[in-house]
């Protein structure tokens, strides 16, 4: 054996194994190479992981699992399949059934006993599943990384495999040259180190040694006539009855085993836990640390019984108010309206019309195959069509997938591909993107699309045709604890995450909003903030979205807001801080009719990002009779707390001990509880949950409307729920003596200086109170523990070239912060913000730019 980076030489072993595979003559003994961490385990062995590689890797793929297993008391045996790695080249063409028998033979000869956990990658995943279903009595769990168990006969196999199978180049690309091996190793993200690439190549230095790579590719079942097709089909069906815990760890950038194959596996093993490592590719074991989550998962799933929670009570469906109001005195009153560009109502529905349209569309969608559990990606702007679609899908038990176009093309594509929707309903622009990026799902057009364009965009159905069908839906309501929606986060702190809500949790969100803001049926709201555009009908409130691009909040004008308010005699307005800034900037354009409508507003709610008190104070004269609320929450739990302008003013005079002051976001909403997990000296939230005033740490939330889980992000979900019964928000703050919450920033943005931990929101708020400053970001640059504190400000009257702040401004900033910790004060023409709200400052990008600017590495802002 050559020296292998990351592999203890004591793990390498050989074993002579009598063969019972049909391809071998009777009495054949094959020599296997394998890696076994047993020499490194001190103490009792908890079980054995049997790891099976695919093509063209070998047991070296599992070295991180071997090392971690030794630390956790798990034996890990990683085999080199025959013809591969350093095992024998038998010269015989082994098929799938032979390889499963080979693995049986090895386990018997090695004396490996249960409890067994099979771990597989690529075609090793298929072999490991074949072994698992044959050896159920010893099986404890199944772990899979990028693999496939079924090929849809209506879809071509992945292009790289088609190329490798092409008769003209099959042998040339797989064994005569190292092309197939090189291409596979090049899929690693990031690029493999030179010594690691050399280790992977070590067993395959000659064409004869690469013959197994050629044979493995040839054994891919491309159709019913292939010798291994029947065995693959048998395994694919038999695993449906596997009742052991299953974990799938996936690299979604894999050009071979895409999310389509993951989705197929989940349909066969619906109880599986799944984590998609965003950005990882085919060699997910190289791209990401899979060892830590494997043993964390085994501790959770294989070592303890599932919690038996108390049965939840009854819940009222989200569409209850639509149904009730359509049958009562309000049946003919306005339920929802669409605004035209001229400030008039372009279309509207009464409650009776809304209920009828929802029911008819549910029946039509059901006819074309939308059923309970179907995922339906909705790419339609807020308004009548989207509202009807949402409630029709929910009535069917279909799962709506809502990813904001504000995520941008790449973010939106990640979200859609990651959820693998069965149906995609969108306007023409969304359908064009679906065609361009190859998004999955049966296409349904919403809005005008010409027949020619429809064919080009692969449109199967038109929403207007489905709505014209006259049958009402008469199916039963879905189970309250079944999935209802996947709502994507803003992506302001990393790739957007899909947040899964059940019907019960969505209904709890509705009830919490109603109780917090006293939104009774019969009220009327203007929804200038996309998340709330969905909830108006659920609240029994007449609703309208103003003429704006909801994916760009800054497009909301005062004229559009007031026109929408006038159209429905609105009592309530929902809008993001960025939208309200533009409303203020365009307030002079409001007509007398619009001013009167704004004077009738009773509640104005702004959420989605921190809301400066100065913005609220400037807004108050525009809506003089409204109470201005700024609830705190997140996609995972909205709302968590609530506060109004009067309470904010009261809090401004308050003092509270703790690291940093932050911004007061009020007391918990009805049904919600808040605790704090204190920070240690390294900035890690390791403290036990506490409600003690003045303790700064990570904010924990518990409420009936907190999300169910993250979609196919088991590792992320595990981290966010590691304190049983609580959602860890990733935000930092403290409670005061009045049980109000003060938010101080994000965990990811803590500054660990030599003087201690600094949270950014308090200093930023102090800086933003200066007349000469529009926005500010306080960041840390340099190594953790000795970070330099830098303030980056966006002057109120603009900035010229990016540079150190003028002396006067820098002095004012330092004085406002009241600290000598600031290493530098910089100015920038515009701070980068998140793409959904246009208001959350991207502190990570600011820190990266500030470091580069101060080191002279660049002058461009992020």
Structure keywords:
862 residues; alpha/beta; Rossmann fold; Luciferase, domain 3; eight-stranded mixed beta sheet; 21% strand; globular
User: What is CATH's topology name of one domain?
Assistant: Rossmann fold
Helix content percent band:
25-40%
CATH top level assignment of one domain: Alpha Beta
**What fraction of residues sit in β-strands?**
15-25%
Q: Biggest sheet: strands side by side, in what order? A: 1-2-4-3-5-6-7-8
Compute the gyration radius: what is it? Answer: 30 Å
How would a textbook summarize the main sheet? 8 strands, mixed
Shape: globular
Task: Describe the protein.
With 862 residues, the protein is an alpha/beta fold. Among the domains are: 15-154 and 223-302, Rossmann fold, CATH 3.40.50.1820; 320-502, Rossmann fold (3-Layer(aba) Sandwich); 654-748, Luciferase, Domain 3 (Luciferase, domain 3), CATH 2.30.38.10; 750-854, 2-Layer Sandwich (GMP Synthetase, Chain A, domain 3), CATH 3.30.300. It is built from 31 helices and 36 strands. The strands form 6 sheets. An 8-stranded mixed beta sheet has the order 1-2-4-3-5-6-7-8, with helices on both faces. Strands 15-14-13-11-12-16-17-28 form an 8-stranded mixed beta sheet, sandwiched between helices. It has a 7-stranded mixed beta sheet with strand order 10-9-19-18-20-21-22. Strand 23 (632-634) and strand 24 (637-642) form a beta hairpin. The longest helix has 17 residues, at 351-367. The chain starts with 11 loop residues before the first strand and ends in an 8-residue tail after the last helix. The mean pLDDT is 92.
């Amino acid at each position: 054996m050559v020296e292998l980076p990351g592999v203890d030489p004591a793990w390498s072993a050989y074993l002579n194994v009598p063969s019972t595979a049909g391809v071998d003559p009777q009495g054949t003994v094959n020599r296997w190479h394998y890696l076994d961490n047993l020499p490194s385990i001190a103490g009792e062995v908890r079980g054995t992981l049997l790891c099976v590689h695919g093509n063209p890797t070998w047991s070296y793929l599992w070295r991180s699992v071997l090392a971690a297993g030794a630390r956790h008391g798990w034996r890990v045996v990683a085999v080199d399949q025959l013809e591969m790695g350093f095992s024998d080249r038998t010269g015989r063409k082994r098929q799938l059934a032979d390889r499963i028998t080979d693995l049986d033979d090895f386990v018997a000869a090695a004396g490996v006993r249960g409890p067994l956990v099979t771990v597989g990658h690529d075609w090793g995943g298929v072999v490991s599943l074949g072994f698992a279903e044959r050896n159920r009595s010893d099986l404890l769990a199944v772990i899979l990384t990028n693999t496939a168990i079924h090929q849809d006969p209506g879809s071509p196999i992945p292009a790289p495999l088609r190329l490798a199978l092409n008769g003209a180049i099959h042998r040339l690309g797989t064994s005569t040259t190292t092309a197939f091996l090189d291409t596979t190793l090049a899929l690693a993200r990031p690029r493999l180190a030179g010594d690691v690439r050399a280790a992977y190549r070590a067993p395959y230095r000659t064409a004869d040694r690469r013959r197994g790579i050629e044979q493995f590719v040839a054994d891919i079942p491309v159709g019913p006539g292939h010798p291994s097709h029947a065995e693959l089909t048998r395994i694919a069906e038999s695993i449906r009855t596997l009742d052991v815990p299953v974990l799938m760890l996936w690299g979604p950038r894999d050009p071979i085993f895409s999310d389509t194959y993951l989705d197929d596996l989940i349909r066969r093993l619906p109880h599986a836990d799944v984590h998609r490592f965003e950005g990882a590719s085919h060699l997910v074991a190289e791209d990401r640390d899979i060892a830590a989550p494997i043993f964390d998962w085994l501790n959770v799933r294989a070592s303890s019984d599932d919690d038996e929670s108390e049965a939840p009570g009854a819940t009222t469906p989200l569409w209850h108010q639509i149904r009730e109001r359509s049958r009562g005195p309000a049946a003919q009153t306005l339920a929802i309206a669409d605004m035209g560009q001229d400030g008039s109502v372009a279309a509207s529905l009464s409650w009776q019309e809304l209920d009828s349209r929802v029911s008819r569309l549910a029946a039509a969608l059901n006819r074309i195959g939308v059923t309970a559990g179907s995922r339906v990606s909705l790419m339609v702007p807020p308004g009548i069509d989207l509202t009807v679609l949402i409630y029709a899908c929910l009535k069917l038990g279909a799962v709506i997938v809502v990813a904001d176009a504000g995520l941008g093309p790449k973010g939106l594509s990640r979200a859609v591909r990651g959820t693998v929707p069965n149906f995609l309903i969108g306007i023409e622009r969304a359908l064009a993107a679906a065609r361009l990026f190859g998004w999955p799902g049966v296409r349904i057009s919403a809005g005008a699309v010409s027949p020619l364009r429809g064919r080009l965009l692969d449109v199967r159905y038109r929403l207007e045709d489905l709505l014209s069908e006259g049958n009402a839906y008469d199916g039963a309501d879905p189970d309250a604890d079944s999935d209802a929606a996947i709502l994507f986060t803003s992506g302001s702190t990393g790739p957007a995450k899909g947040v899964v809500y059940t019907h019960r949790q969505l209904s709890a969100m509705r009830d919490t909003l109603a109780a917090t803001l006293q939104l009774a049926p019969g009220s009327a709201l203007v929804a200038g903030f996309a998340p709330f555009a969905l909830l108006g009908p659920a609240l029994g409130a007449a609703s309208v979205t103003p003429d704006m691009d909801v994916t760009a909040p800054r497009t909301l004008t005062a004229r559009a807001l007031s026109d929408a308010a006038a159209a429905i005699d609105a009592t309530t307005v929902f809008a993001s801080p960025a939208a309200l800034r533009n409303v203020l900037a365009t307030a002079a354009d409001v007509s007398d009719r619009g001013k009167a409508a704004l004077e009738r507003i009773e509640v104005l709610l702004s959420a989605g990002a921190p809301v400066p008190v100065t913005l609220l104070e400037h807004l108050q004269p525009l809506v003089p009779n409204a109470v201005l609320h700024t609830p705190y929450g997140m996609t995972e739990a909205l709302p968590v707390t609530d506060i109004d302008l009067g309470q904010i003013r009261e809090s401004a005079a308050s003092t509270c001990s703790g690291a940093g002051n932050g911004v007061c976001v009020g007391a918990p909403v009805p049904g919600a509880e808040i605790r704090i997990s204190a920070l240690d000296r390294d900035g890690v939230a390791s403290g036990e949950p506490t409600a003690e005033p003045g303790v700064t740490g990570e904010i924990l939330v518990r409420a009936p409307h907190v999300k169910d889980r993250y979609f196919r992000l088991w590792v992320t979900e595990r981290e966010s729920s590691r304190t049983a019964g609580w959602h860890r928000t990733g935000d930092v703050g403290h409670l005061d003596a009045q049980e109000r919450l003060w938010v101080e920033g994000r965990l990811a943005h803590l500054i660990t200086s030599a003087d201690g931990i600094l949270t950014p929101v308090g200093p930023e708020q102090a800086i933003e109170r200066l007349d000469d400053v529009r926005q500010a970001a306080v960041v840390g640059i340099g190594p953790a523990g000795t970070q330099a504190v830098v303030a980056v400000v966006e002057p109120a009257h603009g900035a010229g070239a990016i540079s150190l702040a003028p002396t006067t401004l820098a002095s004012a900033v330092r004085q406002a912060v009241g600290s000598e910790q600031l290493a530098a004060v910089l100015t920038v023409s515009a701070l980068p913000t998140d793409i959904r709200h246009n208001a959350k400052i991207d502190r990570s990008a600011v820190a990266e730019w500030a470091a580069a600017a101060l080191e002279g590495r660049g002058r461009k802002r992020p």
